[in-house]
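Ticket reopened. Same input as before:
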Amino acid sequence: MKSHYQLAIVGAGPAGMAAAAAAAECGATSVVFDEQPAPGGQIYRAVETPAAVDRAILGVDYWRGAELAKTLRDCGVDYVPGATVWQVSPTREIGVTVDGTAMLITADQVIVATGALERPFPVPGWTLPSVMTAGSAQVLLKSAALAADGAVFAGTGPLLYLVAWQYVQAGVAVKAVLDTTPISNYFRATRHLAGALRAPQYLMKGIRLLRGIKKAGVPLIRGVRDLRMRGDDAVSAVEYRRGHDWQRIEADQVFLHQGVVPNVNLSYSIGCRHTWNEAQLCWQATTDSWGESTVEGVAIAGDGAGINGALAAEYQGRIAALGALYRLGTIDADERARRAAPARAALAAERRIRPFLETLYRPPKYFRVPPDDQTVVCRCEEVDVAAIRKAVAVGCVGPNQLKSFSRCGMGPCQGRLCGLTVSELIADFTDLPVSEIGYYRLRPPIKPLLLAELAELQTPAASDR
Amino acid sequence: MFTNIGIRDRDFVRVIFEDQEIMVPQGHTVAAVLLAEGIRSCRETPVSGAPRGPYCMMGICFECLVVIDGEPNQQACMRHVREGMSIERQHGVAQIGPDANAAQDPAE
Ligand code: FES
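Engineering reply: fixed in the latest deploy. New output:
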């Protein structure tokens, strides 16, 4: 590792890997930092060394990541796995911890490619052990060949069906899929069907997944509008209702999912401007057509700048890298446009399905703004809806004041699991638009850092320059 | 309960989970090891003492905190097993931060 790079990329998912490849083609000195031990991000996690013997269970789309990972390894950029970036300053000084050693390096340009995380799913009992996310089920499948027999999957969105389908492919019993997609979403989504039909592969894939799940005899229960997890020391049952009456399914493992949202902690902490995306119900960094944020020299690529999926992330990564290379003076405007043209066309095609998916899998308000006073919102500090309601009643008007009222959002996850819920809850209580409520103010370090690490802060030797 | 659905050939390493030696596949995270062993909760919350277990498996929720080689507050889903690693569930109040060690109950 050097103490200075022309381009630093944070994240080795599809966007980060594609950005690195584009930078390498043009000969900029670049580094890719990634928290995981191997490239791929969450979507292509463990793609170089998948744990399961049977390759077919993960589906064909997954293997695209292998090609990207190989390019990253071969393209000549410095790839630093196991690296936690805890700070990027507006002057692009980067604080990163590798193997327990904290370091500061600098870069002329930064691309934040930190991807997405799963939307909070605050229902009663969601903090019980063995209630996990659908994404976590997939991580365990990809990286450890582990699957939970007799699990219940609950929620909405492509990832939920994909993981349930992967379980079925692996011959693992799925007790039930509780689908929380509101029936009215199907009608609303038909308005966007024309766009969706221009990208029929996604529709076909969705149909294939659901058909596979049903064919395996898994009960697919639609129109679920209330959910609660039961158990003492861990979950032992899921209760749900579609109409008036509660139904109960005994289960010792539940996977929840209601879509993914941008992982904005790093971009917020840098000071990039963010706006509320009403179609996707999330905060996202404001970027120009080259992915550059409102902070000069800092670009956001991939799902971190709005959810568009893995393929789009790849194209956005490439476009963001070309933007950075232009700002570095490595390429001129003509070359930038020429090299970006194929990625732009592919990106536009990739986005056609989005309005359809966003409408169909828009999570309903009753699962985003928990109606039940006892539901835990902030898992770290165990703050429930009632406490937030009370704070708002005595004059708390935003997520930042809420921290001092209740410690909500002050735990180690730094609001990643409660931030969206809090913005929407306060908006609901105050009858104001979410865009006016705002989000937590986030400052570095964005991951807990031991004082010992800070004390021994190092700069890679000057001779490495 | 998580079970192995057919793992590729991997080397195994020996880890010590609360005084018990177990052989686990190289490349597993500590959280994967705990789940495969049927350990559902790995800690209690500092606020109410409620049991918690891994939730996201991608390093964002901090629910999977355990004690690794005597160090509390380690994210089990982000740490990979190593030969001889000692893993313990985290009991009692162990706040993240510089005095995490001091907050650890020595009786545990
Ligand atoms: S399970 Fe979420 S941080 Fe480890």
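Chain B touches chain A at residues 1-8, 10, 25, 27-29, 32, 35-36, 40-42, 45, 47-48, 50-63, 73, 77-78, 80, 96-98, 100 (CB under 8 Å). The radius of gyration of chain B is 14 Å. Please confirm and we'll close it.
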